[in-house]
From TrEMBL:
The lineage of its organism: Eukaryota, Viridiplantae, Streptophyta, Embryophyta, Tracheophyta. This is Uncharacterized protein.
Length: 334
């Protein structure tokens, strides 16, 4: 709508919140001393990229700006030579995408629709929608830089689980704290991969060199990206939810065998290596599994009971937007 801003990477008016992320490291693998495990061929992450692009193309085809253009918006459809793939007027969607009204059909929007009208599927579909081509390109570049290297190291099953569960976790936390705004984007899932990189470094601490440098780099990148989330119209709760889920899943799915176990073939026959993983890795695995199950259980129970997360945490709205003299956070604090 006129006068409204959009961004979570995204789109037009109507208070669309984008899940936006910026710079991530391609992988922490450069700090590994020696990886004797088989390198996987990455195919799932490229498929995720293709799927996201395909969904955006379908959305633009159905949106058909020239046919459904509303005169209340100032300006004409952008890039009209693209026909029905042309973008909505920049006043409606400054990130070059479909209308906010159209995005609402598959986005995480209004708690009542998700829960009372039994449209829980929105918690999944919103991860595959993007507000505009700028939002899409930013997220897909990050997915390529992070996801391909992780998939090569740990395989498509582990990375696929982390990506999908993190995206879902981001949608759930967003629904608890931001109840009446459109919210779309893959960055909850991308923050999950980033969180998994951090926990992977921690759980495999003994087989990395330059540990301090690796940890410092990741923490700085995490802090910068989460800090950007406190700007208005950016759904930082989706980022936080995805990051926490990915962080716990990293301890569960990404532990590496300790160096002694990898070198067992080079040891004398009378020297046995009893355990593939170290004791602290087993402990982190167990604690993370318990926290992950408990977190999802509590969040889903609260969501489908209709509870507002802000009622239980009166300061949490500052995690998604900090008001200043230049902007207010009313739309972020619904």
């Amino acid at each position: 709508m006129p006068g409204d801003d959009i961004e979570r990477g995204g789109g037009g008016g109507g208070g669309v919140k984008s899940r936006t992320n910026n710079s991530y490291p391609s992988s922490s693998s450069s700090y590994l001393i020696e990886d004797r495990e088989t390198q996987w061929t990455s195919w799932l992450v490229p498929m995720f990229v293709v799927a996201n692009v395909a969904v955006f193309i379908v959305v633009m085809y159905i949106n058909n700006c020239p046919k459904h253009f509303h005169s209340r918006f100032e300006g004409n459809c952008v890039a009209r030579f693209l026909g029905r793939f042309s973008f909505e007027p920049l006043r409606d969607n400054p990130l070059f995408g479909p209308s906010a009204t159209f995005l609402s059909f598959g986005s995480k929007i209004e708690w009542e629709k998700v829960v009372q009208k039994h449209q829980g599927w929105r918690l999944l579909t919103c991860v595959w929608l993007h507000v505009g081509i700028i939002h899409l390109l930013a997220n897909m570049l990050c997915l390529v830089f992070i996801g391909i290297r992780l998939e090569q190291q740990f395989g498509f099953v582990h990375i696929g689980i982390i990506y999908l569960l993190s995206g879902f976790a981001g949608s759930v936390l967003s629904s608890l704290f931001i109840r009446n705004s459109i919210s779309v984007g893959a960055s909850g899932a991308l923050f999950g991969l980033l969180g998994a990189m951090l926990s992977e470094l921690i759980t495999n601490w003994t087989i990395y060199t330059n540990k301090a440098a690796a940890l410092f780099t990741l923490l700085v990148i995490i802090a910068i990206n989460l800090a950007i989330g406190i700007l208005p119209h950016v759904d930082n709760f989706a980022h936080i939810g995805g990051f926490l889920a990915g962080f716990l899943l990293g301890f569960i799915l990404l532990p590496r065998p300790h160096y002694g176990w990898l070198e067992r073939r080079n040891l004398p026959a009378d020297v046995g290596v009893k355990s593939k993983y170290k004791a602290y890795q087993y402990l982190l695995w167990l604690v993370s599994l318990i926290l992950l199950i408990a977190g999802f259980t509590v969040a889903l129970v609260m969501l489908f009971r209709g509870e507002n997360g802000n009622d239980h945490c009166h300061w949490c709205h500052y995690l998604s937007c900090v008001p200043t003299s230049r902007w207010n956070c009313e739309e972020n604090q619904l």
